[in-house]
Amino acid sequence: MRECMHLLEDSGHGAYLVGGCLRDCLREKTPADWDIATTALPDRMIADIGERVRILPTGKKHGTLTFLGTEISVEVTTMRKDGAYTDHRRPDTVDFTTSLTDDLARRDFTVNAMAYNSREGLIDPFGGRDDLSARVLRCVGDPRLRFEEDALRILRLFRFASALGFTPEAKALAGAKERRDLLCAVSAERVSSELSKLIVGQDALTALRLMVSGGVLEAILPAFGPAIGFDQKSSYHDRTVDEHSFAALAFAPPVHDLRLALLLHDIGKPAVARVDENGRGHYKGHAGVGAKMAAKILRELRYPRKTAVHVEKLIALHQIKIPLDPAVIRQLIGDHGVGFVRDLMQVKRADNRAKSPICAPRREHYEKVGEMVEEIIASGDCLTLAELALKGDDLTAAGVPHGPRTGQILRELLKLVWSDPKQNNRDALFSQLKKIDLPDRQ
Fold first, then answer.
1. Kind and range of the H or E element at 115?
2. How many helices (H) and strands (E) does the chain have?
3. pLDDT averaged over the chain?
């Protein structure tokens, strides 16, 4: 990064560290990426520096080039002023400028609208350093206009609130609420990207609550709307569906698929709700219904198929009862895999922690189940057909006709091993063959 700035400055151009990387440096955090603003036009940069550093024309039309260093890449953008945003996402025109203040004025929040170089020090025309110290998110200029220009900034407001643990200024929240209708201009991919970053943030719980109060969460997840403020009318729950979901999410480690599943795990409850004659709420089948709803949401938001399938399955099975029984747990792992069962245990722990105190025994139970899961994994017990001491060829050699029956027998032998791992040896399994009684299939 310093090398890039030196190359630009040595060629007679102004160069400034800007945006999120400067914000993170001031917070004594390591930036995820680096951005430099420069007075040099793209063609001028290529002509002056192109022989000394590899340059990619990643966004040349808008003034952005990528400088490839030995260890990092740096985005270098010509200072600019943006024209009108008629699509509420991108400027119709871009005018290059040599005014650093004009370039900073087009940015979203004051903490992202500072610049620095070693010659001039910190340039902070909008009070970003003070807001950084106060841990406040304030828009550059009128929030309503900032969000009208680019509706994605609404989601960035809440994502930064979660990731940084900062408090959005009241005017910014009001502007986001007023212009949430413009979120329809944001692509599904960008919505999912911002949501994914938000839910793994250090203060996701507060950010999600703010999104609900501003109508923003329902704007991007309409299917979540019925869950907001939904009274569960249950002694097992002292929170509404949305608050329970947010609390469960916050109790889970900041792992994306876990938190996404917990955000949506009870989304099916309003659809299946039934209140009995005593005023108690019942939600039979909500896990399956919620899993289908979540799958639809994730498809619409263009989540990767692997993520969507994993999250849907976690939601579908989050209500299953798992006894403190090694045989049952071995079968669970064998059927679904180590990674899935570990994630399911995290979901069940977080879900139960977010319930009312009456559920304390459940929490204790699933802590013990989780410990047993890890003990079984560490033990090296046979959990899958691949680990079984007998194979299909062994059965064929023993006179079992090759075909579907072979798989059925192996599955029954595996069940025996789940109950008693010591049975996983050839002699013991062969001795069990005559005891297996499978119905003939026509």
1. strand 115-117
2. 22, 13
3. 95
